[in-house]
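Course assignment 3, question 2. Fill in each field.
Student: A.L.
Task: Predict the tertiary structure for the chain below.
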Amino acid sequence: MDNTDKPKRQRGQRTSITLPVAEPAQLMAFLIDQLPHKNRNNIKSLLSNKQVLIDGKVYTQFNHPLQPGQVVTVAANRAPEISQYRGLTILYEDQFLIVINKQAGLLSMATSKERDRTAYGILSDYVKKENPKNKMFIIHRLDRETSGVMMFARSEKVQKLMQESWNDTTKQRTYVALVEGTPEPPTGTISSYLRESKALIVYSSQNPDMGQLSVTNYTVVKANEDFALLELELETGRKNQIRVHMQDIGHPIVGDAKYGAASNPIGRLGLHAERLAFEHPITGEQLQFSAPIPKSFLAVVKTQQDND
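Answer field:
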């Protein structure tokens, strides 16, 4: 029997605790209430050891405000130091997966035309340092100019498990986009059929025979006279889906001349993969990772009120 993809559980190993937030509270008060077997000093140690996460991100402030719908995770062990490389940061790794925050400008993996430094190449070198036989397998891609959360598998078996069950095991894919103008209404759903031409341009149609069904939900988070910051939830994950759908509604992503943008105030494509939540393909654990919204996005949608 092949045991290579079974989680290694050592005797006495503890597991993480997941605590859904039902009502507003400060983090310390919430933890004291939820962990009656621990005293205030125990909880301070958990915070200082970076073992407390809110929606997948480490927080150490005892008075951090919590909102209903958030999930607090108390990790079993002290958080490993985040590994940073030129172009990416490793947010999480175990023997099955590596999750990264990719910077804009870094290719996900090489193509026949482009052999530049890639996220795949950086991670391949990283895992081979541990064992020259180790390999990396890409699960999903981000466009070169899109930043944010991205996931790789450490075996072909795990890659296949994630890709084949992607729609069922991926619980949340949240992007933020900086777009020209402000969509009306401020929340909506864009649905169309997408197909790619031989020239690698993706076209949108309302004809079901003209491509794959693609659905994007958007919400305006902040806006000024010229630009808006949108939060986008994907129901499908087609190539260039968000970029084409923003063009469809007349609010292209800044810096995206390929799909109709006339401006580029941030010197890059205004698209960022902010959050990814999924079920671990081997352990079944619910995991969530986030990458902060780039400060350049937020600076563009500052209003006069922010400056006063």
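Instructor remarks: Confidence is low (pLDDT under 50) at residues 1-13. The first strand starts at residue 17 and ends at 20.
Grade: pending
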